[in-house]
Design a protein that fits this description.
heterodimer; A: 535 residues; mainly alpha; two-stranded antiparallel ribbon; 2 strands; 4% strand; B: 512 residues; 20 helices; globular
Chain lengths: 535, 512
Amino acid sequence: MDVTGLSLTTITLFLPIVGLAVLLFMNGEKHRGSLKWVAFATSIVTFVASVLMWINFDPGTAELQMVQRNTWAEVTLGESVINVSYFVGVDGISMLLVLLTTFIMPIAILGSFGSHIFEERGREKLYYIFLMLLEWSMIGVFVVHDLIIFYVFWEVTLVPMYFLIGIWGSEDRIYAAVKFFLYTMAGSILMLIAILYVGNRSGTFSTYSAGGDVGVIEMVQTFEGDGTYWDALGPDGEGEDAGFLLNSVESFLFLGFLVAFAIKVPIFPFHSWLPDAHVQAPTAGSVILAGVLLKMGTYGIVRFNLNLFPEATIAWAPTIAFLGVVGIIYGAWVSYAQDNVKKLVAYSSVSHLGFVVVGIFALNSQGLQGATLQMVNHGISTGGLFLIVGMLYERWHTKEMADFGGVWKVMPLFGAISLVISLSSMGLPGLNGFIGEFTILLGSLGSDYLGFAFTLFATLGVILAAVYLLKMFQHVFMGELMNPLASEDGYTLTWYEKAAYIPIIIMIFWMGLQPIVFFNMLDVSVDNIVAMFVR
Amino acid sequence: MFQSPTIAEFLAQSNLASTLPATLLLGWTLILVLADLFAGEERQHWTPVLACLGLGFSFLANIFVYSPAEAEQVALYGMFVGDAFTGFLNAVILVATLIAILMSWDYLNRAEIHRGEYYILALISSAGAMFMVGANDLIIVFVALELLSIPLYILAAFRSIKNDGSELALKSEESGMKYFILGAFSSAFLVFGAALVYGATGVTNIPQIFAAAGGIVSATTSATFYLLVGAALLIVGLGFKVAVVPFHMWTPDVYEGAPTPVTAFMSVTAKIGGFAALLRVLITGLSVLVLADGEAAAWQATATIIAILTLVLGNFVAISQRNLKRMLAYSSIAHAGYIMVAVAAAGASNVIDAATQGALVYMMAYMFTNLGAFAVVMAIEKVDGSGGNIDDLNGLAQSRPLMAMAMTIFMLSLTGVPLTAGFVGKFMIFSAAVQAGLFGLAVIGVLTSVVSAFYYIRVVVNMYLRDSAGDLIPALETRYVRLAINIALAGTLVFGIFYPLATNLVSMVSIA
């Protein structure tokens, strides 16, 4: 669909900027009531646009679709001039994650409708401006296929998130915000060097081929010669031998990208920023952080590490997958030890994303499909869990598990919703979490690169998930009501709270009962990637 | 036989037209002296207006002289060269001077040190910088350097003309004195270096040095040694001017003591002049100083070490600064380190143009961003010089959201976050370094920018995330200060968002 010369991807990408511009010209005091509506309407329109993309999306091809590519600037690297291009388009993986982003965003905005933070901190206009900026940059990360522009979007996501945590967070917000910023920046800046090297070596920053220009991925895959593309052996047969962990250019480039992504995911042991950021962030911030931002890391690994550096990926796969398994068990263990509900959910993210990492580095079709689906599942269910924590906090003003108890007695509907989301998060068959985790485990079992032990220990994580989530559920919802609210009115869910949960519940059941719809989207795109790793 | 040249010959050889932007500005200062002298006390405010007018004329002349992408125009008997490099940096210097003058007017009035001489000195100094970027001869490099520096010594001490014995006046005096002594000291190095290069090659003209040095290096005579020592001394002399480690010691004290607009002005113009001369001398003159076949120029290793030291020291020491001016002083040392990365990259013969262009864009980005940051600091500074600590920014976002937003963007630009001019500059510099094969340097460069993020972000934290005791009202927030901030902000954003703009402007630059 190409009505205006802009592809649908471009339109979806820039819709949040339209909302941002509208917000910018509104008077924060006079139109205070309508700020949230503008933001909400923008996010809904963006969602509709992304659904249109989905309708237009043809799952039968691995090619990028709804592509737009314009040369943006020229970079002189030594004697060669390299184009930086505005290059957007989607394949199955991108499409699914764009949908996740646009799906989570309205929910996150609904989650801040009745929030008390504005009474305390004010600056509502700035808040929604940052949310729009965040949505724009997150969609950008998922649809852009030029390394430089990707880096731009990647870094820009930091700024709004930093402010969301720093201005509207809880007590230790400044510490958490600064830690978040420095940690993630330290990782991503090494990626810049790797990107520059890639551009310098291949003469282009475009990863995919388009319009006659050959992209880096095609160069890597069609390289014919001794050694690999990155460690080509010279005409005299000399050159570095690839395949060793730390003895090749490819490995260093792989690590340059991986560290950036590993911090974002976060892969153990790079996770220490996450509990702080999550616990201190406002509800919408946590929802987006868990729902989308972390997926940027796993998406980056799939899109760049696997595609650009296949040899290094094979060499490093067991190591990284091992870290993934450690993350699964460590995250679950630490999660169980928490007294703070929000921290518990935060550590559960470390555990869940460990699964995604194992699935990716299984390097086969099931593993990668499961991993991608699990990214979406985790976005939906953990996003939902953070919403629950946020709503509990709005009512009881505490996050300590000991202060709750018996919530089900007074809020049965809320209890039921929470039960479904918790069950989805622990991977109950019939709900979405099961599909992702099961496929990943299947993938890791059949992997040429990972052994049986990986599956075994990862499976332990499924059991542990049930342990910590049921502990949380029991402490908060079961038993006697510990702290009755002053007013009975507090027990009813407002319409926007209910509205936020409806799409989540629908998706949990839909993805759990009819996963084929989503697997179909991924099938060809994933096969295209794993084709490199088939032995 | 010596023949006196005819008038026509003289005019052709001096080719004054191509030096017009710089000579026009220098001539304008003479008019300004007279105007300031004869205008009465009550018409003194015309001096800055006239100064801005002079800057405008010079800017126009600059566009006319350099905009047609012609081949380089040699002037003054080969001692001056007008090319795209000169034209671009001239424009940067003129904009910097304009912003500095906008900042100065209200500041000087408030401090009761308003004198017409201030603007005249500033204009002479920027004319000196403009001669320096076009210098094609070591003699001109030296003369222009003095023309640039001497007014700066006076300006640094300008606060002390109101000799009320206050700490501010003393600090300003100390600042000027320190700057003068170390400046004179460094000039001596420069001259000695020039003398050794002259001794080795027999010429002072930079392209001729290039021609002569090639033969000397390939013949490996003892003259190579003098050439090397000469190059080292030139780096030392100019290194003082641009404040790279280990020649940076004067910077924090001088920056803190000088009146804030002067600090802003000299942190930009002196660096641009110094780096322009350094690039010309090292690239145009001495890039042939290759000791073994296939290696980079001999000075690359020196430049690399200086860059690493500067990046590490500048960024790490800045962390512990509580005073904003001192913090910006150390951060300016760090930024000199980033430009030094480009200088080091230029040592590889195939990246010379990319590195030069990167350095130019970086200087432009640094000019906008740094002046903007200094303007905000000046706005919140109180008349007695207090209120310039990092904690004094607390709550600025509540009382002045736009100013806080501008300062945030300046800080992000100094850090090198995308969509700001600072990112474009860093990006170009690091691509040059990667292309030159200096991976270690590039990695240290990016890692130290993470360190820099720590102290820049602290400024943002204080503005947005901490509350002040009362409402923070900037003490000096006038029309002109706001205009200065807005110009700087526009530059930072426009060149950051429209990436091709900056690269197109420098795409013609080649001084190899």
